[in-house]
Amino acid sequence: KPVEREELISRIESNLTYSRLAHRHNVSRNVNDNTENSPAYVKAILPRCDNEKDRKFIVKFLDIIESNYQDERFNRSRASELLAMSDRQLNRTLSKLLPDNFTMFLKKYRLEKSMPMLEQGLQITQIAFEVGFGSGAYYSRCFKQVYKVLPSEYEFSQPVETE
């Protein structure tokens, strides 16, 4: 899908800045560093992984989510296939590392990704399709479930709170 030029430049500059700092201070990257441009929801729930295996899993998992969240057909089965693990193993691993199951994580991730578009005043249906929801009505229901208000009524001066 097309990307806004300013957003792409901003992300590249941010990544370059971090790379320079990490190199200068000889800092190894952890999960939180890899999610610098992630939605607030992701930053809020990500644990500091105690071991390298969990850290690598989270980084790979987030890369897969970022690459596929806009596809409305993307689901746990497809994610587990891309991670080369069974659905059950993915469920066990996620329950160990995250407070939400896969479906809720993906839903909240998509909702967070929709916030800038909502703030710009784009139409609900357009936003819904852009972030992987099947319809504007379903997007609105999910938004209300998580934020306790419809997207059309959301005030951007408030801090974002999820359940």
Describe the structure.
The protein has 163 residues and is an all-alpha fold. The protein has 2 domains: 29-105, no CATH class; 107-153, Orthogonal Bundle (Arc Repressor Mutant, subunit A), CATH 1.10.10.60. It contains 9 helices and no strands. Helix 8 packs across helix 9 (136-147). The longest helix is centred in the first third of the chain and has 21 residues, at 5-25. The chain is globular and about 40 Å long. The two termini are 30 Å apart. The model is unreliable at 23-32 (pLDDT under 50).
Number of strand elements: 0
pLDDT average, as an integer?
A: 80
SS class: mainly alpha
| Beta-strand content | under 5%
Give the helices and strands, then pairings.
Layout: H1 5-25, H2 31-34, H3 40-45, H4 52-68, H5 76-82, H6 87-97, H7 102-119, H8 124-130, H9 136-147
Helix pairs in contact: 8-9
Summarize the structure.
By secondary structure, the chain is mostly helical. It contains 9 helices and no strands.
